[in-house]
Amino acid sequence: MEAVINNLIFLGRIAIDRVSAIGRSGMILMHAIIARPDPLTSFPLLIRQLYSVGVLSMIIIIVSGLFIGMVLALQGYNILVDYGTEQAVGQMVALSLVRELAPVVTALLFAGRAGSALTAEIGLMKATEQLSGMEMIGVDPLRRIIAPRFWAGFISLPILTMIFSAVGIWGGLLVGVEWLGIYEGSFWSNMQNSVDFFDDIGNGLIKSLVFGLVVTWVAVFQGYDSVPTSEGISQATTKTVVYSSLAILGLDFILTALMFGDL
Amino acid sequence: MRNRGIELGVGIFMLAGAIALTVLAINVSGLSLAEQQGSYKIYARFENVGGLTARSKVTMSGVAIGKVSSITIDRKKLMALVEMEINEDVNYLTSDSSASILTAGLLGEKYIGVTTGAADDEILKEGDFIEDTQSSLVLEELIGKFLFNQASE
Amino acid sequence: MDFFDDIIIDIKQLTFSRGDRYICKNIDIRIPRGKVTAIMGPSGTGKTTLLKLIGGQLKPDSGSILLDGDDIPRLSRSELFDVREKMGMLFQSGALFTDMTVFENVAFPLRVHTKLPQDMIRDIVLMKLQAVGLRGAAELMPSELSGGMGRRVALARAIVLDPALVMYDEPFTGQDPIAMGVLVNLIKKLNQALGHTSIIVSHDIKETLSIADYIYIIADADVIAHGTPEELQQNDSEQVRQFMCGLPDGPVPFHFPANDYETQLMGGVDGSGN
Q1: Are residues C95 and A133, on separate chains, in Cβ contact within 8 Å?
Q2: Is the predicted pLDDT of residue C249 greater than 70, yes or no?
Q3: CA distance C150 to chain A (A)
Q4: Together in a domain, B45 and B25
Q5: Are residues B72 and B132 in the same domain?
Q6: CA nearest neighbour of C109 among C149, C68, C156, C146
């Protein structure tokens, strides 16, 4: 009997912890979004964060996009050539990149590259009392520290996704046309016939917006809510990568089902 | 001067994003801004649409003039009812036009080909039906027919 | 008790707990205006927590903290940020913003709270840095400073808005004797020169006694003694004497509560007292 009650207490405690964590993260998100922007100070802060979150992630995005596009073209060619439809490589590369791979892979890389850095940075600021210090100076750290980082992530991810798609398709072109010798005209025309701007590129963009929201939200919250010790920060960083990767993959399924499920 | 470097980087980043989106829009999806025009809906009933899907092309002499917007079953006649959105500037489809489901290449996608009839007939408007239709070719039926003919000879 | 003719902070019946443990229980503290008040006590008794309660970063379970009539725990978020302009706080770690230079760190509160022109901000910042003797370090990054210098920069930042109240969280811990002497001098001189109220949280007895006008000693979630340094040195309560003289054992035991020593040693691995 005692054991049952103890287990129930344990279960209840976990549930309460989880729910209150969701509540706290919701508060942070709300503060970050409705934070009254002050153009004079917020804009330079946003620029600086765009640089560290977006610009510095560009290299990894471009390189991975290029290789993924090239591999897709090579694999696709090997399958399609059996049916004599190798000119459909362009279509295959473009559709799989634009609809699926670009938003998901970019978001996963982004979570590992920028999300973990955000968490570690905010966690370290908390550990060195910089957040408290700012609060005591009379500046809301949610507005000054959290909000620009959140917006920078939210803006950067769709841009990175577009770059990833474009570079990936270029990689597919390199392999398909330059190397395997597919006729360039049919490569493009097949692609243009099958890719729709709003249904495919637009939906990919919506996906990346959702992922951007989730990844930066998780990263910022884990940093802000971390235990301010070196162990706590390393745990928070791990949690950021794990939680945001799982959230990306789960949400991707839901979004894909909503967007393409009825076609 | 560290700030200038940062601003330059962010500027390049934004520009790269815009270029990527433009390339995707124009080169990959073949979007052209002039395409933003109205359309009107016409309908056709088919015995068998086998493989035709929403968003398939509607063509005339091989030129795209619209797209399939939905495929449902006509409850009364128990036939497939295909709704097509035809571009507004295509205002010369006569009521005796015929629509057939064709295949691009041997294994390619299905699309609808429209052929006009006699010139001075009534023009199709929003909500009209194309009565003369030819269904999708189904390979099994063709083979069946061929064998039947062979046997009867 | 001429100290308490004019009090800036009046803490009444303050209770704060973490989990089942009381950090402070029904505490009454009054801080006289314009004086140096020290809050002392062994480590882990919630002195820093008390500062955070005054700063409004934590909310107490019950009780009130009146700062010039404003009850801190009952202020809204935005009112709180306004009240904090009247406070400066020196954190244990300095809490300098690592992505800004020393100059920008000190200028930060001015830029946020005032609309002063650039050259005036520059003059004020250089004056404050001169006051802590680090005008020459204005363009360094915080990572290039020693611990003691970092704390002095943080002090300059804490006083840059000329606050009515400056709180020092363990200003002397982990400093070498020279840096310690410099800080003691600075706190005293700044208090006299600028006329603000200082609250020092510390467990460094010698330094604190030398600058404090009034001292509260906190232990076991309660104020166990208060008075001027002279009064406290005369105090004959055992607990106070242990703390003031730094005796290793006394009412505050040397040993953390544990099972019986002999039983645990003799019990072997699995019989570890359980």
Answers
A1: yes
A2: no
A3: 12
A4: no
A5: yes
A6: C156
